[in-house]
């Protein structure tokens, strides 16, 4: 199955996965437990062995918005905040019981500066995250809710087993009723 976050499919990232599996700390995270919390210092990145994480941004009014997901076989973390030693811009919460291998930002910095190949990998990671963000921005402006929903289905067909209708609506920036109408059209 394709990864939800396409960058994780790239062959170059096998070295990053190996880094976490070899040097990272094994941790089981229960559903609803936080890996990072918005507004607090965050210092870890991780490889997801099993499970699913949601990225949640709380606005100034206290409303939560689902802004992303990371699934098994992918990486989780607030990359900019972690590597720049800043407070997390999002909360990252386990949506299911999950198993991760995590490493502190300082260890990731050492990994990325260890050799030219790893420096190249860090550049590719930054580029991929930029492209992913840019594409999401364009999709929000240029695609219909139905097209966005179909993109989600094609990228992760069994997401409905793990993500509630309300979360899907938040992620796609529509109402839960809109998602219900889209699903009815499909059936």
From TrEMBL:
Q: Which residues form the Cyclic nucleotide-binding domain?
A: 27-114
Q: What is the lineage of its organism?
A: Bacteria, Pseudomonadati, Bacteroidota, Bacteroidia, Bacteroidales
Q: Where are the membrane-spanning stretches?
A: none
- This protein's species is Bacteroides faecalis
Which Pfam families has this protein been placed in? cNMP_binding
Name of the protein this chain belongs to:
Cyclic nucleotide-binding domain-containing protein
Tell me where on the tree of life, at the top rank, the source sits: Bacteria
């Amino acid at each position: 199955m394709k990864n939800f976050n396409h960058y994780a499919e790239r062959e170059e990232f096998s070295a990053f996965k190996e880094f976490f599996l070899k040097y990272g700390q094994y941790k089981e995270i229960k559903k609803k437990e936080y890996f990072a919390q918005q507004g607090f210092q965050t210092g870890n990145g991780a490889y997801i062995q099993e499970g699913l994480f949601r990225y949640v941004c709380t606005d100034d009014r206290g409303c939560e918005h689902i802004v992303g997901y990371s699934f098994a076989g992918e990486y989780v973390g607030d990359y900019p905040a972690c590597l720049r030693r800043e407070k997390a811009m999002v909360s990252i919460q386990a949506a299911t019981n999950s198993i991760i291998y995590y490493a502190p930002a300082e260890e990731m910095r050492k990994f990325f500066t260890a050799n030219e190949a790893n420096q190249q990998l860090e550049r590719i990671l930054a580029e991929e995250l930029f492209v992913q963000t840019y594409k999401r921005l364009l999709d929000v402006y240029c695609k219909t809710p139905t097209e966005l929903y179909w993109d989600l289905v094609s990228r992760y067909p069994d997401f409905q087993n793990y993500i509630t209708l309300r979360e899907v609506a938040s992620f796609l920036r529509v109402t839960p009723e809109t998602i219900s109408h889209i699903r009815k059209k499909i059936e």
